Amino acid sequence: MTVIRYVKNFIFSKYHHRLIFSFLICTMLPLILMGSVLYSITHKIAGDSILNSVILADDQLNIRINNRLNQAQKVSGTIQYDMYSLIQKMSDSREDFAIISNVRDNISLLKSTFDFYHIDIFLDEKNIAASEGLFFHPLSDLRKKDLEDIINSNQKWIYKKQYPLPYVIDNTKNPQDVIACLNVLNNQVSGNTEYVYLVLLRTDELSQMLQDSVDLTGYIIDKNGTVISHTSKELIGNKINNIDLNINSDNTIIENSSLYYHIVILDNGWYHITEIPKNYIFKHIYTLLRTFLIIIFLSVPIILSVIFFTSINLTDRISKLSSAMDNFKLGNKSIDLNYMSSLDSSESFDEVDKLGLTFLNMQSSINKNMQSILELTLSEEKLKYQLLQSQINPHFLYNILGTIQTCQTIGKIDIANHMISNLTRFYRMSLRKSDEKIKIKDELEISKLYLEMEQLCRQDTLSWTINAEDGIENFLICKFTLQPFLENSILHGYSSEHPNIHINIDVCYGDDEVIITIEDNGCGIPNDKLKQIRYKLSNHIVDYNQHFGICNVNKRISNTDFGNGIVLIESEEKKVQKL
Known about the structure:
It is a single chain. By secondary structure, the chain is α+β, with helices and mostly antiparallel strands. It contains 13 helices and 16 strands. A hairpin with a 6-residue loop joins strand 4 and strand 5. It starts with a helix and ends with a strand.
């Protein structure tokens, strides 16, 4: 924020700086806008071209992957014909062994011809081929290979981690991650499984295809988000759940904050995903950006030089006059406009020079009048405050004397005498504290004397509590601040529903002020009257006919000498009042 403030002050401190800034905006802004639009359009075209090239490479890769998957699926369909002849024979005849041998040769030929990892066939244990051990296995081996759940599965393709081969075929004992095109035959009558066979492909084969395509991260996942193949082989088998796979054929690109995802559904229902980092696109259009920045960097110094020398020529005298005016202060007898002495005569003065002469003439009259105006203003404010303070004393006195007269009239002489005694103490303390400001503890004591006088007249139907935070009593406050509010709480709080009045006075610390809260349980202020009072308070109106006391206090404490205090009133008719 300090740097921003410094730059802002530097720009707007002088007319010369403003003129340079204006010229700079008028020249640089169109250049930057045009360059930005040109760069944005070119960036989009180049970015779309790069994306299209990646998509084209992906499409070619998808053709290769789909061809390989479809090849395995067609071989799986071919094997089904051999399986039909295999499961028809159950004896140990020479003819049956010939059929098994023929089927095994066909399977071996298919495996070697199409370079499959392996082809495994699982048969009923009663079938004599189930003990062959190379291509044929009993159905019970499905459990050993953790494949027993595929029997009732509707999946055509599965992923299997670390699939082992028979020792005779692979003596390295090094199992591979594989994908399998499976075929299951369940007897419709008995519900028993007749056979299961798998055409197995190494996931490394697909990973190699992904690595050979483009220099980007690519992977194949199944519908559950399991990584089947990946350009980074160590990530195969992990789960990916942060990609939305709800795509359509019209839009195969998904974008997030840093990546584009190109997602294509393969023929077997799996997803081929290619990650295209946005910085990959930026890297390929770096030459364009570099050219654009070079043009900007070369243009800016030239433009700044032209603007600077042009503005210096235009603003030299204005800046000197502005500096002289800026240095002018109340009471100075003259200002320095020495540049005017270099002019030949007043006939050569232009508008700027005439403005300087006018300012010199105005200075002398301003110095003569300003001090007297200031003194008169201070005197007026002081007299206004003293007048407002003096008006509240007789207002309070009239109310108390009226109460004493009422007590004498109805025969309560002892109460009247007690009130006169308290009134004497009240005014002795008030007059002793003759300053415009008094301590809060003295104001609270004056308020307490007033409440005691009212309590005598109210036959003990009035009670009060005073709470003040530690140390706050020594803060200063305007004299007679609380009494008008206490008076209003008493005079207007009683009703048939509220025959007893309790007043609570709280004095506490605010953020940087003292907060005094007066609450009573009286009948409340009607809405129309409350609205009228709030209007007078917000506009600092002192009405001598209505609400004089609280308006008077509001006017006094809102003075800048007393911290610009405010009065807020909250009340609902027939509910507790809060001032």
